[in-house]
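Justification of resources, computational component.

The compute hours requested in this renewal are based largely on the per-chain cost of generating structure records like the one below. Each record pairs the submitted sequence with a full C-alpha coordinate output. That output is archived, and it is also reused by downstream analysis tasks.
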Amino acid sequence: MRLGSSEWVVVDGFVAAERALREAGGAVPPAGLSPAGADQALSCLIAIEKLAAGLRVVMAGQAAQTGSWRIRGARSTEEDLAKRTGTSVGKAKDTLKTSKRLKKQPKVEAALRDGTLSDTQAAAVSDAAHADPKAEGRLVDKAGETDLRGLNDECRKVKAAADPDPETTNRRIHNERFFRHGHDVDGALTGSFRITPQAGADVLAAFGPFREA
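The structure output for this chain reads:
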Protein backbone atom coordinates (compact mmCIF):
# COMPACT_ATOMS: atom_id res chain seq x y z
CA MET A 1 0.00 0.00 0.00
CA ARG A 2 1.22 3.48 -0.89
CA LEU A 3 1.22 6.32 1.58
CA GLY A 4 0.20 9.87 0.80
CA SER A 5 2.57 12.76 1.45
CA SER A 6 0.72 13.80 4.61
CA GLU A 7 0.90 10.24 5.91
CA TRP A 8 4.65 10.11 5.31
CA VAL A 9 5.02 13.19 7.53
CA VAL A 10 3.24 11.34 10.35
CA VAL A 11 5.18 8.09 9.86
CA ASP A 12 8.50 9.94 9.62
CA GLY A 13 7.65 11.67 12.90
CA PHE A 14 7.18 8.33 14.62
CA VAL A 15 10.40 6.97 13.10
CA ALA A 16 12.28 10.02 14.39
CA ALA A 17 10.71 9.65 17.85
CA GLU A 18 11.73 5.99 18.01
CA ARG A 19 15.27 6.85 16.97
CA ALA A 20 15.52 9.65 19.54
CA LEU A 21 14.31 7.36 22.33
CA ARG A 22 16.84 4.69 21.38
CA GLU A 23 19.61 7.29 21.37
CA ALA A 24 18.53 8.60 24.77
CA GLY A 25 18.50 5.07 26.15
CA GLY A 26 21.95 4.39 24.74
CA ALA A 27 23.27 7.57 26.34
CA VAL A 28 22.42 6.36 29.86
CA PRO A 29 25.80 5.62 31.51
CA PRO A 30 26.53 2.02 32.61
CA ALA A 31 26.34 3.08 36.25
CA GLY A 32 22.89 4.60 35.63
CA LEU A 33 21.64 8.05 36.51
CA SER A 34 21.55 9.77 39.86
CA PRO A 35 18.36 9.13 41.87
CA ALA A 36 17.07 12.58 40.91
CA GLY A 37 17.93 12.06 37.26
CA ALA A 38 16.36 8.60 37.23
CA ASP A 39 13.19 9.95 38.83
CA GLN A 40 12.80 12.67 36.20
CA ALA A 41 13.59 10.25 33.37
CA LEU A 42 11.06 7.78 34.77
CA SER A 43 8.31 10.41 34.72
CA CYS A 44 9.07 11.11 31.06
CA LEU A 45 9.13 7.42 30.19
CA ILE A 46 5.78 6.81 31.87
CA ALA A 47 4.26 9.64 29.82
CA ILE A 48 5.88 8.33 26.63
CA GLU A 49 4.68 4.79 27.34
CA LYS A 50 1.07 5.92 27.89
CA LEU A 51 1.13 8.04 24.74
CA ALA A 52 2.61 5.24 22.66
CA ALA A 53 0.20 2.63 24.04
CA GLY A 54 -2.75 4.94 23.43
CA LEU A 55 -1.76 5.65 19.86
CA ARG A 56 -1.20 1.92 19.32
CA VAL A 57 -4.82 1.31 20.28
CA VAL A 58 -6.02 4.14 18.01
CA MET A 59 -4.20 2.66 14.99
CA ALA A 60 -4.47 -1.08 15.65
CA GLY A 61 -7.85 -1.57 14.00
CA GLN A 62 -6.88 0.17 10.77
CA ALA A 63 -3.46 -1.50 10.66
CA ALA A 64 -5.12 -4.91 10.89
CA GLN A 65 -6.99 -4.20 7.65
CA THR A 66 -3.77 -4.41 5.61
CA GLY A 67 -3.65 -8.17 6.06
CA SER A 68 0.09 -7.96 6.75
CA TRP A 69 -0.43 -10.32 9.69
CA ARG A 70 -0.73 -13.15 7.15
CA ILE A 71 2.67 -12.30 5.67
CA ARG A 72 4.17 -12.51 9.16
CA GLY A 73 2.77 -16.03 9.50
CA ALA A 74 0.16 -15.35 12.16
CA ARG A 75 -3.17 -17.17 12.26
CA SER A 76 -5.14 -14.06 13.17
CA THR A 77 -4.80 -10.33 13.72
CA GLU A 78 -4.99 -10.97 17.47
CA GLU A 79 -2.16 -13.49 17.41
CA ASP A 80 -0.03 -11.18 15.28
CA LEU A 81 -0.55 -8.21 17.58
CA ALA A 82 0.17 -10.33 20.66
CA LYS A 83 3.48 -11.53 19.20
CA ARG A 84 4.57 -8.07 18.04
CA THR A 85 3.78 -6.42 21.38
CA GLY A 86 4.89 -9.26 23.62
CA THR A 87 1.49 -9.53 25.28
CA SER A 88 -1.24 -12.16 25.47
CA VAL A 89 -3.82 -12.88 22.78
CA GLY A 90 -6.52 -11.81 25.26
CA LYS A 91 -4.84 -8.42 25.68
CA ALA A 92 -4.55 -8.08 21.89
CA LYS A 93 -8.26 -8.85 21.50
CA ASP A 94 -9.09 -6.09 23.97
CA THR A 95 -6.89 -3.67 22.02
CA LEU A 96 -8.58 -4.44 18.71
CA LYS A 97 -12.07 -4.30 20.20
CA THR A 98 -11.34 -0.91 21.71
CA SER A 99 -9.79 0.36 18.49
CA LYS A 100 -12.86 -0.57 16.46
CA ARG A 101 -15.20 1.20 18.89
CA LEU A 102 -13.35 4.52 18.87
CA LYS A 103 -15.27 5.98 15.93
CA LYS A 104 -18.31 6.08 18.20
CA GLN A 105 -16.33 7.00 21.33
CA PRO A 106 -14.59 10.32 20.62
CA LYS A 107 -13.85 11.08 24.28
CA VAL A 108 -12.06 7.77 24.76
CA GLU A 109 -10.08 8.34 21.56
CA ALA A 110 -9.08 11.86 22.59
CA ALA A 111 -7.93 10.58 25.99
CA LEU A 112 -5.84 7.88 24.28
CA ARG A 113 -4.27 10.36 21.88
CA ASP A 114 -3.11 12.71 24.64
CA GLY A 115 -2.01 9.99 27.07
CA THR A 116 -4.75 10.62 29.63
CA LEU A 117 -5.89 6.99 29.48
CA SER A 118 -3.65 3.95 29.45
CA ASP A 119 -4.54 1.17 27.03
CA THR A 120 -5.80 -0.95 29.96
CA GLN A 121 -7.98 1.86 31.28
CA ALA A 122 -9.30 2.56 27.80
CA ALA A 123 -10.31 -1.08 27.30
CA ALA A 124 -12.41 -0.99 30.47
CA VAL A 125 -13.97 2.40 29.72
CA SER A 126 -14.68 1.55 26.09
CA ASP A 127 -16.35 -1.72 27.03
CA ALA A 128 -18.63 -0.02 29.57
CA ALA A 129 -19.36 2.93 27.25
CA HIS A 130 -20.37 0.44 24.57
CA ALA A 131 -23.12 -0.72 26.95
CA ASP A 132 -24.06 2.82 28.02
CA PRO A 133 -22.77 5.55 25.66
CA LYS A 134 -23.97 8.29 28.03
CA ALA A 135 -21.42 7.15 30.62
CA GLU A 136 -18.40 7.65 28.34
CA GLY A 137 -17.33 11.10 29.56
CA ARG A 138 -17.93 10.27 33.22
CA LEU A 139 -15.85 7.12 33.00
CA VAL A 140 -12.98 8.92 31.26
CA ASP A 141 -12.97 11.41 34.15
CA LYS A 142 -13.23 8.58 36.68
CA ALA A 143 -10.06 7.01 35.31
CA GLY A 144 -8.12 10.05 36.46
CA GLU A 145 -9.61 9.97 39.95
CA THR A 146 -9.14 6.34 41.00
CA ASP A 147 -6.90 3.32 40.52
CA LEU A 148 -7.54 0.55 38.00
CA ARG A 149 -9.50 -1.57 40.47
CA GLY A 150 -11.80 1.34 41.26
CA LEU A 151 -12.28 2.07 37.57
CA ASN A 152 -13.09 -1.57 36.81
CA ASP A 153 -15.65 -1.60 39.62
CA GLU A 154 -17.30 1.53 38.23
CA CYS A 155 -17.33 0.09 34.71
CA ARG A 156 -18.99 -3.09 35.96
CA LYS A 157 -21.66 -1.00 37.68
CA VAL A 158 -22.32 0.89 34.44
CA LYS A 159 -22.66 -2.34 32.46
CA ALA A 160 -24.93 -3.90 35.06
CA ALA A 161 -27.14 -0.79 35.16
CA ALA A 162 -27.39 -0.81 31.38
CA ASP A 163 -28.93 -4.28 31.42
CA PRO A 164 -32.75 -4.06 31.74
CA ASP A 165 -33.10 -7.23 33.81
CA PRO A 166 -31.01 -9.84 35.66
CA GLU A 167 -31.46 -12.38 32.87
CA THR A 168 -29.88 -9.96 30.40
CA THR A 169 -26.95 -9.51 32.78
CA ASN A 170 -26.61 -13.27 33.03
CA ARG A 171 -26.55 -13.65 29.24
CA ARG A 172 -23.95 -10.89 28.93
CA ILE A 173 -21.68 -12.55 31.49
CA HIS A 174 -22.15 -15.88 29.71
CA ASN A 175 -21.24 -14.33 26.35
CA GLU A 176 -18.11 -12.77 27.88
CA ARG A 177 -17.05 -15.93 29.71
CA PHE A 178 -13.46 -17.12 29.56
CA PHE A 179 -11.19 -19.70 31.12
CA ARG A 180 -7.45 -19.21 30.75
CA HIS A 181 -4.65 -21.29 32.17
CA GLY A 182 -0.92 -21.71 31.80
CA HIS A 183 2.29 -22.32 33.74
CA ASP A 184 4.66 -19.88 35.39
CA VAL A 185 8.46 -20.10 35.32
CA ASP A 186 8.44 -22.58 38.21
CA GLY A 187 6.03 -24.87 36.39
CA ALA A 188 3.12 -24.05 38.68
CA LEU A 189 -0.32 -24.10 37.10
CA THR A 190 -1.89 -20.64 36.91
CA GLY A 191 -5.21 -19.46 35.57
CA SER A 192 -8.17 -17.12 35.66
CA PHE A 193 -11.80 -17.31 34.64
CA ARG A 194 -15.02 -15.33 34.39
CA ILE A 195 -18.30 -17.20 34.36
CA THR A 196 -21.91 -16.79 35.46
CA PRO A 197 -22.74 -17.10 39.18
CA GLN A 198 -24.58 -20.36 38.47
CA ALA A 199 -21.59 -21.91 36.74
CA GLY A 200 -19.35 -20.47 39.44
CA ALA A 201 -21.28 -22.33 42.11
CA ASP A 202 -20.64 -25.60 40.28
CA VAL A 203 -16.93 -24.81 39.90
CA LEU A 204 -16.54 -23.93 43.59
CA ALA A 205 -18.38 -27.11 44.58
CA ALA A 206 -15.98 -29.15 42.46
CA PHE A 207 -12.96 -27.36 43.92
CA GLY A 208 -14.21 -27.75 47.48
CA PRO A 209 -12.57 -31.11 48.29
CA PHE A 210 -9.22 -29.99 46.85
CA ARG A 211 -9.28 -26.76 48.85
CA GLU A 212 -10.12 -28.59 52.09
CA ALA A 213 -7.39 -31.16 51.46
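The radius of gyration is 21 Å. Strands lie at 178-183, 189-194.
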